[in-house]
Each structure stands twice: as C-alpha cells, then as structure tokens.
Amino acid sequence: MGLEEERKKVTFCVENLTRFLYAQILPDVSFERIRELKDKILKIPDLNYTLERYHDTREDALNRGIRQGLAMRAIFQKENCTESERRMVMGFFPEITAAVLQYDFFMPAFNLQASEEQKAQYKEKLDNLEIIGCYAQTELGHGSNVRGIETQAIYDNQRDEFIMNSPTVTSHKWWIGGLGVSCSHALVVAKLIMNQQDMGPHTFFVPIRDMRTHEPLPGITVGDIGPKMGNPCADNGFLRFDNYRVPKSVMLTRFARINDKGEYEILDPNALKVLYSSLVRARVNLSRDAWHYPTIAATIAIRYSLVREQFPDPENPQRERKLLDYQIQRSKLFTVLAKIYAIVFVRAVLTEKYNESERRMKNMDGSLLGELHALSSLCKGFITASAIECIEVCRRCCGGHGYSMYSGIPHLYASYLPSATYDGDNSILILQSARYMTNIIKKIHKGEPIPDKYVFLANPIPHLSGDQNPASPSFHQACFQAISYVSLNNLAKREAQFLKNGMKKEKIWTEILQIEGIEAAETFFHTSVHEDFIKGLSLITDPNAKQAIEYLRQIYAITQLDKYAGILINLGASPNVIDKMKDVLLEAFDKTRDNAIGLIEAFEKPDEMLCSVLGKRDGNVYESMLFAAKHLNPINKSSVYPGIQKYLRPKL
C-alpha cells in the first residue's frame, strides 16, 4: 500500500485543518495569500533546494546564500511583502544566510536604536540590500554580558569623531552572522568613552568595507571564522578595529547622543523599556518559529515510516510490516507530532500576548514586559531544546538511511542546533524565568496582584481528589498545576531560607538553586503549554480533526506527567488512575496511526523544502536514493576514483 492509499485512511478534511493551522501560525496573512506566495517561491530556482547542495563546498554554499538573498529581495519588493509575509518566505528555507540575518536580526535592531533621521537616511539602501548590515555584539571573550563588552568607541572632541578600537584579543567581534564576507556595515555594540570615562555600551552603525570595491577599510581586520557544525551558507565572521576613525554621525541616536557642544545627552528616558521590548521580541520570534524545523523532519520520517517495511507480519507472513505499524515507532513519532502541535498552539497564545504588549508600548506602557520576558525566555529555552530533540528522534526513526545527508534530516539538525545558544543560552533564560516565578510567590504572600497564568499558585495546597478521569483534559491540567504548585513553592521556600541565613541572592542563583530552578520552571512550562493546547483544541470546529488532535493532546500530557508519577500519587492521585493513564497513552498511539499522515501533511511542506530522498510526497524512496547515489554523487563520476590511481595503485 502506497502513500496515496494511506492518505485515504485519514478521517478528517486535511485542507480544512491546513487552513486552521495557518490561521494559528500566521493570523494576519490570509490563507490564499500564503498559498500564492508559496506557489511563486516554487517557481524561482534560487529559492529552491536540490539534493546537489549536499555536495557543496563551503564556497558553493556561500554563493548559494548570496543568490538566495537577491532572489528574496526581488520577491519582497515585487510582492510588497509585509513583515509577517517576509517571515513566512524566510521560514521556507531551513538555512541562515546574510539576507535572512539582514531582515530578521539586523534591521529590527537598527530600526529600534536609530533616530528617525538615521532611518530615513538608510532605509532605501537597506531594503534593497545595497547596504548589508550585521549586528556585532558578541566578542571572542563576551556574549550575553553586554556590560563586559571590551570594544571601545573613544570620542575625540577635537575632531568630533570616534576612534574605534579592539584593545585585547578577547575584544575581537566573533560569531557575527553575515560579517565574514557579505556585510558592508556593522551595527557595533561598544563602550562609549568620553573624557576617559566609560559611559557604558552604545551602538554605532559603522562602515567596514568599501562600498565600491567591498575591500576592508583601513583600520579594519575582518574575515570568516571558519567551518561550523552546520549553516554553511552563513558567513559568521570576526572583526577587529585598530584606531579606526569614524564620524560622530555613526552613533545611533534614538536614546542618547553627543550634542554640538560635545556633551552627552539622554534623549529618551524610556530607553530601557524599549531595549527590553526588543530583547523580548527576539525570544518570542525564536519560540514562534520553532514549529518549522521539526515539522520538516516529521514529514520526512512519517512518510518514510509508511513506505519502509521491516520483518514479516505475524498475521500475514507473506508481507512485511510498515515501520509505523510498530508500537515503538509510533510512540517516538507521535510524541514528536504532539509536540509540534503544542508549539503551534503556544505560538498563537504567545503572539496574542506579544501583540498586546506592543500596543501598550506605543504609549510607553511596559506593564506586560516583565511577564512576557519571563514567558518568552521560558518558551525559548524549552521549545528550542524540544525542537532539536524532535529532529534527532525523526532522524533515528529513519534508521541507517537517516544518517545519509540525502535524507535531509542531518542538515536540518545541524542548521537548527545553535538555536539552543544564540539570543541567550537556554539554561540561563530558563533560570531568569525561575527567578521571576519565585517573585510571583512572594507577591502572592504579600497579597499583590499577579498575572492570570499564575493565579493557580495562589490557591490552597492542591489535593487531586474528586474526578480522576485518566483521559480528561481538566484532570491532566489539574495534575500539571499541582506539580508546578509544589515545585515552585518549594523553590521559593528554599530561596527565602538561604536569604534569611544571610546569603546573597546572586550566590544562591549561581551556586545552589540553578538545577532546582530549571526543574521547577519546567513544571510550569508544561502547565502553560498544556493550557494553550486545550485552548487551541477548543477552536477546532471539525469534530473528526478535533478528536485526532485530542489524541495528540493526550500523548503530550501523559508522556510529560509520567515523569512525575510519584509526586502525583503523593498529591492524591490514585495509583490505579496513573496506570490507566498509560493505557490511555497506548490507545492514543494506536488511534493516531491512520491519521498521522494527514496530521503532518496539513502543514504542507513541499518536496523542495524537504530536500529529501526519504520524504518525497510520491513515496518513491528507493528510486530516489539510487538516483542520487548514482547520478548526483561526484565521487561516482569516474569508474575508478582518481585518488586510487594517484595514491594506491603506485604502492601495489
């Protein structure tokens, strides 16, 4: 039975589910517009992947990234894309290039910190990629600790210029995406030095290459940092300044400036709020975009599992069983599928919260920023880690063939892996959320108002009595809340005790409570995700699709709750109910079997995006593998490999 026969088993309308999913993912872009842009992208050669890319040299990959950037610019301009539409187009490509970084990281940072005059001066050239910029904060010796940045911008009031310097080895800018070969300018985070006084980190929009020749300017040392585990299209670079003089106008002046008298002026007292908002934006986007990569991997793995057959069927020894007919394969892939849907529902809620915060910020009301920062940090930390794990699970589910680059999954994994590190190490971000939650507990004890998501923490000590339906969403949510209640209150008590004993808070959170803090934060993360899952389910109108996704909710909930079985029993859950929850889980795996292909194909990832011999929509796995090995592999161009003739034969 081929994939078309498998598709006939699906119990719901896949088209309707696709429309629902994209209403959650891109609520401000019509479904027709999404389809229109996808169709146009598929007709542009430089915006489509082929299997040949797996044989690319680093130079080939960089060249491909440059061509892709130009093609992106063309479609953005021709289609007059909104920001959401641009993000959709960029999300079509599971690789990072200088153009993606220009639009996704550099331009938001520039627009945030530049004055209106500076934005007007550069807007057209930035939109057209005439100027390619990068965000140069990270240094060889410093990353997230902005206060520790060593690069200097020394103000020379005699010449009304800045002297940019990299005074130490560790002050080299490092890992800067797009800097290696592409960028003409860098948005540099440097210490502003005035009259030998350190004024703290500021931003400077500095030319680093000649606009005519692209040669590095005098006083600039710049280059690519070398091969990485993945993302060969990304030219991560290094940068050193050696008494490099630039005009005063390079300082971005939305928040502060040096006036005509050579005096430092603060222009916007809300600077910290706005910068805080930009930090939140980056983490929200990383959380919102995390559904994309595991969805590609799961499309490949589920299709392959419906094509690949292994060992005789006990009930029909003349035929072999499909991989997806094995319980262990179902448990792995359907848990991944459940996590993907969870991420989509979290994305929808996070987007609502972020948009509300942005509306308030227009009036400089930062009242939601603290809550949103904690939530986005928590989600970035756990969701990106979960997405990475999902991709690797999918690779292993493809057996030995999953190790081939032609499968598409190894490249995907290596490309997404650094998401656990950039824009904040996951562990550090989760700890920030944990500290926020201990402060929520303190507010509860003081009778102060708290955000709605945390109200359950103000209730009496939970006891899981009453209805204990092992399949019920409300019972599962009560379990999550009870576990989170106990974990967070214990964490807050521990912190309070250490503070009472005279220990400083920073010592507590760097030496004693980090492991416990992450564990407690995880319990709240699952509580929040499951709440969002229930909300998302309530919006589905097709009863068959709703039931299919309810099984995914059960899979998500029970696989997570199983880790806390002992705590749940201590909180009043019946051991018999805990056992029955496992039966519910196994049934959910079985019920998802026939709908799996519909649930993953509802995301409509085309073959051009998958770039995989294993995940082709037509199911022609083996023909594709053989063709790629025989005809695309340059090693097989000659009947005798040249290296054999050159090195081995003379020694025989």
TrEMBL record:
Its main location: other. Gene3D superfamilies: Acyl-CoA dehydrogenase/oxidase, N-terminal domain (1.10.540.10), Butyryl-CoA Dehydrogenase, subunit A, domain 2 (2.40.110.10), Butyryl-CoA Dehydrogenase, subunit A, domain 3 (1.20.140.10). Its cofactor is FAD. Residues 477-651 form the Acyl-CoA oxidase C-terminal domain. This is Acyl-coenzyme A oxidase. It comes from Blepharisma stoltei. It is found in: Peroxisome. Belongs to the acyl-CoA oxidase family. Residues 30-132 form the Acyl-coenzyme A oxidase N-terminal domain. FAD binds at residues 138, 177. One of its GO terms (cellular component) is peroxisome. Residues 134-243 form the Acyl-CoA oxidase/dehydrogenase middle domain. It catalyses: a 2,3-saturated acyl-CoA + O2 = a (2E)-enoyl-CoA + H2O2.
